[in-house]
Amino acid sequence: MIGCDIDRLRAFIACEPVNRTHDVTLAAMATLVTDDKAQMDIGFNFLKHGLIGFLCALASVSACAGVGYSLGPEQVAVVINEADAGSVEVGEYYLAARGIPARNLVRVNLPGKPHSLTAQAFKALRQQITSRLSADIQVVALVWTAPYAVECNSITSALTLGFDAQQCVKTCAAGKRNPYFDSASLRPYRDFRMRLAMLLPSENVAQAKALIDRGVMSGFLIEPASAYFLHTSDSARSSRSVWFPKPGFIPALRFSIDTRQADSLEGVRDIMIYETGLVSVPKLDTLGFLPGALADHLTSSGGDLLGKNQMSSLRWLEAGATASYGTVSEPCNHWQKFPNPSVLLKHYLAGASAVEAYWKSVAWPAQGLFIGEPLASPYRRAGMRVPLPAD
User: Fold this and answer.
1) How far separated are the first and last CA of the chain, in Å rounded?
2) How far is CA 296 from the centre of its chain?
3) On the CB side of 225, how many CA atoms lie within 13 Å of its CA?
4) Torsion over CA of 229, 234, 237 and 243, rounded to 10 degrees?
5) Pure H helices in the chain
6) In b/e form, how buried is each residue of 235-245, taking b as 16+ CB within 10 angstroms?
7) Is the Cα torsion angle 226, 232, 237, 238 positive or negative in sign?
8) Would you list the domain boundaries of the chain?
9) What SS3 state is found at 314?
10) Which of 382, 344, 372 lies closest to 213 in space, CA to CA?
11) Can you tell me the distance from the alpha carbon of 296 to that of 276, in angstroms, rounded to the nearest whole number?
């Protein structure tokens, strides 16, 4: 075994914190990796990418390993721009849709909707936001489309980790390591003094409300779903394909993993994860994204949301995804500056929310913009607990 013995994982399955029940997702995954036949049936390399080690880390969080991902509305701060009517309307809608306490609302004033802020202007904004946050806040949702950058940094990374001036000296250089990367942490502020920021675009109010609704609906997922990882003809933008998991099927989750060499998907209707590498991704209008879907493309300026040079990450949300990611300045094709496919998949299937899974998947996030509905978590099964097979 890697990191712990098989008995601990079996204890994870047998643990009975509340009425002999567990979150179905974590229990099912633990069952898969502790059952010899299941390991043969899975047919993909989660073990290679640390699933057992991750489950062991969760198992060590408490005496009863039923503790798992549990971030909720009480841990989310919502920041609205009072100079932007759309931001205010969408922010209020988000509070109501997710049941976020009114005390978690932070109001700022950013006139003019600039795409980027100077480091000096951002310093004042960050101080204004953080001074309003209690120690319980783990996630910050910025409800606007712009600003989305702080010089060469994304605004989400600058808010979470602080502005990284050194990255702007040479944007193609290696970035600073994300301490939250692929960790077993369930409370990022407690463990790393990081509040995970995600931008919830509000330029189109109707689309923003539909995005929020998809995030909420993800908690009631009942459909089979698939993850698609495409190694495209653009070899430079396929640098993270070395981290693609092998194709396979997880019966307990009714979840398929499809890794292929292709430039696009067409007519697929069961997408939960779609990761690729192209300047612009074609045929998005033919696809069906399930509530909670994550989708992104490795290219230089996907995070330049209102830019014209390459496909904006906003196109993923407009097509029906619930969260996405892109860089706001030239990162070169370091895979560490983009979501690691195996890490993203591992944590999302373990019950992480969109903001947790995405933030855990990027090793060098300074230039990366996280966008979408933060609390989407189709594999959390909140409120949908089932008896274990042993019951």
Assistant:
1) 27
2) 11
3) 22
4) 40
5) 6-14, 24-34, 36-42, 51-59, 85-98, 119-130, 155-161, 165-169, 188-192, 205-217, 314-319, 341-349, 354-361
6) eebbbbbebbb
7) positive
8) 6-68, 73-196, 220-365
9) helix
10) 372
11) 7
- According to DSSP, the β-strands at 196-199 and 225-231 are unpaired
d(CA 13, CA 24): 10
**In 3D, which of 3, 354, 346 has the Cα closest to residue 198?**
354
Q: What is the largest CA-CA distance in the chain?
A: 60
According to DSSP, residue 145 is labeled S
| CB count in 10 Å sphere of residue 70 | 14
Candidates 135, 120, 133, 129; CA nearest to 156 is 129
CATH entry, 220-365, from 1.10.287, 3.30.1370, 3.30.450, 3.40.50: 3.40.50
Alpha carbon distance 27, 18 (integer Å): 14
Q: How many CA atoms lie within 13 A of 303 on its CB side?
A: 32
Counting as low any pLDDT under 70, the low residues of the chain are: 1-67, 382-391
Residue showing tokens 């974590």? 26
pLDDT one-digit tens code per residue, 92-150: 999 999 999 999 999 999 999 999 999 999 999 999 999 999 999 999 999 999 999 99
Return phi, psi of residue 153, to 5°.
-85, 155
Cα angle, residue 39 at apex, residues 249 and 185 outer, rounded to 5°: 80
Task: Report the alpha-carbon distance of residue 245 to residue 260 in Å, rounded.
Answer: 11
Residue 98 tokens, joined: 């997710």
Tokens found for residue 382? 């909140």
Cβ–Cβ < 8 Å for 86, 202: yes
Structure tokens at 360: 């855990």
Question: In this structure, what are the phi and psi dihedrals at residue 307, rounded to the nearest 5 degrees?
Answer: -80, 170
Q: Residue 65 — φ and ψ, nearest 5°?
A: -75, 10
Q: Give, to the nearest 10 degrees, the angle between helix 341-349 and helix 51-59.
A: 40
Say which residues have a Cβ less than 8 Å from residue 71's Cβ, sequence separation at least 6.
138, 139, 186, 187, 353, 356, 375
Note the pTM of the prediction, 2 decimals.
Answer: 0.83
pLDDT the model gives residue 67: 53
